[in-house]
Structures are given as C-alpha cells and as structure tokens.
Write a structure and sequence with these properties.
Helices cover 44% and strands 15% of the residues. It is α/β, with parallel strands linked by helices. The longest helix has 26 residues.
C-alpha cells in the first residue's frame, strides 16, 4: 500500500467501467476512500460497488446525469455533506455520439460538449471549496488522443477533448493559489466495455500493429498514470497533458 493515498477522499465520475473503474480499484487497494459515480446502469453499478468494497472502502455510489447542472451540484453536495472535503477529483465520464460533420444534430453536439467539457468545468468549480481543505488537492481530467489529432466523424469529441486540455491549463493557473494541481490524462484506443461494444478482435489487432508499442492500451495503463499524478511524487506537475497512447501520435 502507498501511504500517500491512505484515507484520501477520491471522487471519480464514470467509475463503473473502463478507466474510471480501474482507477477506483487501484485507489481502493491503496487505502483511499472511493466515491463512485454512474449514470444509468444500476445493475453494473451495484456489482462494481460490491467488487470494490471487497478490495477497500467505497464511500458512496452516486447516480447522476453529468449533463445537468442540478445533478452536478448533487454530486458535490453529497461529498460536502458526508466528508466536508475532497482530496482527488477525477473527471472521467464522457460520451461519444459520433456522426458525420455535415449531418451531426446540433442537440447531440450540445449534449456531447456538456458531457465531455462543460461538466468538467462545473464540477471542478463546485468542488473548489472542498479541495481547498485537502493538504494535497488534485484534479485529473481524462481526455483523449483526439484532443491533439482530430478524428473524422467525431467533431464534438475532438473539440471537447481539446477544450479539456485548455480547461486543465486555466484551472491549474487560477487554482494554484490553493495548491490545487490540475492535469489531463489522454488515453489512446483502449480495451474497455465501451470499445468492445463497437469494435471486434480484428479491429484491435489492426490498431496494435500500427501502434509503435505493438499493443492496445489497457485501463491499467491509464490508472497507473492517474495514480502517479495524484501522488506526492508528482507535486511539481500541474497544467500538463500526459498522453498514454504507446506512441500513436508519433506516426
């Protein structure tokens, strides 16, 4: 167990699958009190809650729609009422509605920007008073490689993830007076329930062949990077975007 995480309060959005779940597991293993958030899959959320409870401490399981301001306030108020402070905020939740640029419905565009960018801004804002009470406050925004290299058919995803990197920089700058460190982690294509639902084995194998590292990203790769940025060893890192992509942006 890494002592720097023991007893820390960690809120992770979108934490019942993929990167969020893996990060929650690793933090729980290291003694943090994990607050899980999910949107609509009650059964999966219950199973993940029980799974992580066997590993470490799960403080709460919060159901909320991150596209709604009142739900974001609900998340922050739950933490405020029960714990009175927050050490780690990990903005992991996101959606990808994907469609051609010319035909993308404007309401879907707004929804994706809300889910992938606006909620991150608002949740950080709502949690500043809680983070100020921590002796090692950290915020991690989970973006994507598409923040730096756009993807056809994913305009709002690419735009919102690029915006997330700038959000990280401005938050790191303005919140530095409270010693709040803010960073972005940008994964490449990874094997998660979301990607497995739309891609097959051949798709993953084809991606691995062109990636300089010769494989597809795993959730643990991202979780390990997040834990490093949360740790005392990363105390002098803020406002940065860490790509976890095996070198795919090099080609």
């Amino acid at each position: 167990m890494r002592e720097c995480f023991k007893g820390k309060i960690a809120l992770i959005t979108g934490s019942t699958s993929g990167f969020g779940k893996e990060t929650a597991i690793e933090l729980a293993k290291n003694g943090a009190i994990v607050i899980l958030h999910y949107y609509n899959d009650d059964e999966r959320a219950k199973n993940v809650f029980e799974e992580i409870s066997k590993i470490g401490e799960v403080g709460d399981l919060i159901k909320a729609d991150i596209c709604k301001e009142k739900d974001i306030r609900k998340i922050a108020n739950t933490v405020r009422d029960k714990y009175g402070k927050l050490d780690y905020l990990i903005n992991n939740a996101a959606i990808d509605l994907g469609a051609d640029f010319e035909s993308f419905d404007i309401s879907d565009f707004k929804k994706e920007i809300d889910a992938n960018l606006n909620h991150r801004f608002y949740l950080i804002q709502q949690c500043v008073d809680l983070l100020k009470k921590s002796n090692s406050p950290r915020v991690i925004n989970v973006a994507s490689r598409y923040a730096e290299r756009p993807l056809k058919g994913a305009a709002p995803l690419s735009i919102s993830e690029a915006g997330t990197i700038m959000l990280t920089k401005i938050a790191a700058l303005e919140l530095s007076k409270y010693n709040i460190k803010v960073n972005t982690v940008s994964p490449a294509l990874a094997i998660t329930p979301l990607t497995e639902a739309i891609l097959n084995k051949e798709d993953f194998e084809a991606y691995a062949k062109v990636n300089p590292s010769g494989r597809v990203c795993k959730p643990i790769d991202v979780a390990n990077t997040i834990l490093f940025l949360l740790s005392d060893e990363a105390d002098y890192i803020t406002g940065e975007n860490i790509n976890v992509n095996g070198g795919i942006l090099l080609i």
